[in-house]
Amino acid sequence: MQVLTTQAKSPPVRLIPLTTTEVDGWLATQSAKIQAWAVTSQLTTPGNLMLLADDFGKLTDVVVHLDKDKYQPLSWMAYASVVANLPPGCYQWMNLSAHELSLAALAFGLACYQFTRYKASKKTWPTLCVSESCYQEITPQLQAIYLTRDLINTPTEDLGPQELADVAQTLATETGASYKLWHHSDLQEGFPTIYAVGRASAKPPCLIELNWGDAQHPKLTLIGKGVCFDSGGLDIKPASGMLTMKKDMGGAAHVLGLAKLIMTEGLPVSLQVLIPAVENAISGNAYRPGDVLRSRAGKTIEINNTDAEGRVILADTITYAKERNPDLIVDCATLTGAARVAVGTEFPAVFAQPMRLGFDLMELGEVIQDPLWPLPLYQGYRDLNQSNIADISNSSNGAYAGAITAALFLQSFVGQTQPWIHLDLMAWNLKSKPGKPEGGEAMGLRALFAFIKTWASPQ
Ligand code: BES
Ligand code: ZN
Ligand code: ZN
What we know:
Blueprint: E1 4-5, E2 13-18, H1 20-28, H2 32-40, E3 49-53, E4 59-65, H3 68-71, H4 76-83, E5 90-93, H5 98-111, E6 127-129, H6 132-153, H7 161-175, E7 178-182, H8 184-190, H9 192-198, E8 206-212, E9 219-224, E10 226-230, H10 239-242, H11 250-264, E11 270-280, E12 292-294, E13 300-302, H12 309-322, E14 328-333, H13 337-343, E15 349-353, H14 355-367, E16 373-374, E17 392-393, H15 402-414, E18 420-424, E19 428-429, E20 439-440, H16 445-456
Parallel strand pairs: 1-6, 2-4, 2-5, 5-6, 9-11, 9-14, 10-11, 13-17, 14-18, 15-16
Antiparallel strand pairs: 3-4, 7-8, 8-11, 12-13, 15-18, 19-20
The chain binds ligand BES and zinc ion (ZN) (2 copies).
């Protein structure tokens, strides 16, 4: 990975981090010349930098007044905010603990991301020189997040269900995983809900499966919602709601990034990845409001809204996942707008059974600054998913608790005893912030990785 290196060609420029409480003390130890330059550079203002050069005008140090307060609780963003202001060159953070250095390196990588598929980058990015152990820890995380971002950013024309399958196949080849694909002709029988949602598109639906690892290890199944475009179907979305819907395969992008990380790190799990990949399109053979689907589990689903398609394709995928008797199912999905109303756009809502799994995940996310927040699988709302003519309805009758009723719908296929974590996520930055460029984003991916790591080999 280019943004991080363990070997600088020439001595790297030192990045000297100072928190607000440290600035005055540090300045007191400096020469009168540097103190005067610090005044000119307005170093006492949080977020500002001071560049120091040697007698030949060569940059040697950048003194950084980190604005950690501004970015609380994500102080890594303070490190990321520095990157855009650095001249090209190779840098090295000084005086940081191993934990802080990891965050700073991660921030550096996240800040240097660019989506260059359709427009070449004009910027020369700086690089960060890090220790071998830091490089080994952070590089796979950055590669996973870059993959996730790239996939979400790629428009549907270039990333339909088949192209998503091709990406999974490439990943399988790289990691030695086995790869299986159900084409749309195979879906009609075995996966009627995936077929029904995907059949209207000129880009046929498919189900993607990867398997990896030792069958003796704990069985983990990752499921990602792979709606390559969500027009809403016949219950068509307004233009404003449809604009970013190439990102509706964000769940799939997350599980592919996460699976890549799990496999490159060699976690002791028996891993299965399942991605139902469809385009929720409109045509003469589109599934309709009022249709009743008979799912793989035999349970009938009344379609009250064709725009609640994610839970429909996940239903048969979950049923299939359960046929392997997994020890844990984790699904990621850009499932509801309601989850965004509940917790906003910047972190996922998490549902879990048992509930403890969600709290553990949240606590880990807090430590590594990849936040998520639990919502309840409140059983008292199950009646909102009731249908008069089928076993369940795909969209709730009421206007409230839409993220919960969607999760309850999934739970009715997962069952009440299967350990399960469900992330309802945005997968998209509405505007650029340090280390979080506008566009596709991994949310909760690092937290899930940390969780799975301890889950697979508890201390
Ligand atoms: N993909 C959307 C949900 C979504 C929208 C996620 C915006 C993130 C940002 C999903 O398929 C959808 O349209 N859900 C509907 C469900 C409703 C019809 C019951 C929603 O949330 O409005
Ligand atoms: Zn939808
Ligand atoms: Zn959707």
